[in-house]
Specification:
The chain is mainly β. It contains one helix and 33 strands. The radius of gyration is 22 Å and the shape is globular.
């Protein structure tokens, strides 16, 4: 981190140093409830003028952006939206003509993937344009992104691997993971999921696709559904959705021998939702039927809290959660100084940006998130003139490959 950045951080009022946001998708309304992921207190409902109910919400790896889908039941219109998480301002959206299911983001944040029954679609996060699609010949239940050109999907009786380079299903295995979410282990040599009818956990070897282990999940309340892999502790988590009047449960498992580490009961959390890990290492478990969310401490494998979403989420929800661990209006908490240089800083308002690759957007915000300058470009070097009053601002750069850089600047 640059010394000037450290100095400027000490000058900012502490009230702007806490915007640990959780954007909660799911329900039958067009707003998104926003909570503080550290104290679980709801602060407001985000509504940026979009229409239609929100189901899926995902965040970029550094939390700078949140992506979500909408479906307008009155017009039939469907869209995927991109917002700046710190300022909660719209960046772009992409209309789509079919159902949007299981919205996922690639590891490098370059692409979004989703499916619509018998096809998988690929969207550029930088342009928010559809760049590729692939018809499957199968009905798709859930997808998991391996890399920018490889996606795994499952259906009722099979798990398959598709290659967007060749537009082919290149591998498959039958009678395995069934219409439920999947997760890779740390090195992506194995993929885990559940079979909701047999209530079993299934581990598949990835190359080639084959069944490694099938493990009975007896004692898990409800049906085994979502799975999550904690890389740092090599622990696998399986969610029992607690339907038929029982509370939900999460089972922590050692994937080396499939022994149970802990069974964690989730009072009042029922119904299927998608696991999401918060930046402070809590596993959030949305209960779509129970209108509540459980947070599990992944360091202790214990229940931290259960909180209700009634009044903020609708009668069906929550379902997904996206996180933004950002300083208010600042973006990512780290400064990736290898990406570019911004000088002079402080300045009289005339700034030069020198980057290692082409910059596509230059945006400047106040520390409260108000946009005061925006410029589209396609250069490695750019000069901007800020006609603003003296103060502290946030410079946000978007590169042509979809990566981002944030830096605090000061105008004197």
């Amino acid at each position: 981190m640059k010394k000037s950045c450290l100095l400027l951080l000490t000058l900012i009022n502490c009230s702007v140093l806490s915007a640990q946001k959780a954007f909660i998708g799911g329900g039958n309304s067009s707003f998104i409830p926003v909570a503080n992921y550290q104290d679980f207190a709801f602060s407001h409902k985000f509504f940026g003028g979009h229409s239609g109910k929100v189901t899926y919400a995902v965040n970029s790896s550094n939390g700078s952006f949140v992506y979500f889908d909408t479906y307008d039941v009155f017009t039939g219109n469907r869209k995927i939206h991109k917002i700046d998480a710190a300022s909660e301002t719209y960046v772009a959206n992409m209309p789509f003509h079919r159902y949007i299911n299981d919205l996922e983001i690639s590891d490098d944040d370059a692409f979004l993937f989703f499916h619509s029954s018998n096809a998988i679609y690929k969207v550029s996060t930088s342009t928010m344009q559809l760049v590729d699609s692939m018809m499957l010949g199968y009905n798709c239940g859930a997808i998991e992104v391996y890399d920018n050109n490889t996606v795994f999907f499952n259906g009722l009786y099979y798990t398959c691997k598709v290659d967007f380079n060749t537009h082919n299903v290149v591998d498959s295995v039958a009678n395995t993971i069934s219409n439920t979410d999947m997760v890779f282990n740390a090195d992506k040599s194995k993929i885990y999921g559940t079979h909701d009818i047999s209530n079993s956990l299934i581990c598949l070897s990835v190359n080639p696709l084959s069944v490694d282990t099938t493990f009975d999940m007896s004692g898990l309340t409800g049906k085994a559904s979502d799975v999550f892999f904690q890389d740092s502790t090599t622990t696998l988590y399986v969610y029992g959705n607690g339907i038929n009047g029982s509370d939900g449960m999460v089972r922590a498992i050692n994937p080396n021998n499939y022994s149970t580490i802990a069974d964690i009961s989730l009072p009042a959390v029922t119904g299927t939702g998608k696991f999401a890990r918060s930046p402070d290492n809590k596993l959030w478990v949305p209960g779509a039927i129970g209108s509540s969310i459980a947070a599990i401490d992944l360091n202790q494998n214990t229940l931290d809290t259960v909180f209700s979403t009634i009044g903020f989420s609708n009668f069906y929800g929550p379902y997904t959660v996206a996180f933004s661990p950002q300083l208010l209006g600042i973006g990512v908490p780290e400064y990736e100084t290898n990406l570019c240089k911004v000088y002079p800083n402080p300045s009289a308002g005339l700034l030069t940006i020198s980057a290692e690759r082409n910059v596509s957007q230059v945006v400047v915000y106040t520390i409260t998130g108000q946009e005061v300058f925006r410029k589209s470009t396609n250069n490695r070097t750019e000069t901007i003139h800020l006609e603003q009053v003296s103060g502290t601002y946030i410079l946000s750069l978007e590169f042509e490959d979809g990566q981002h850089y944030r830096q605090i600047i000061q105008v004197q």
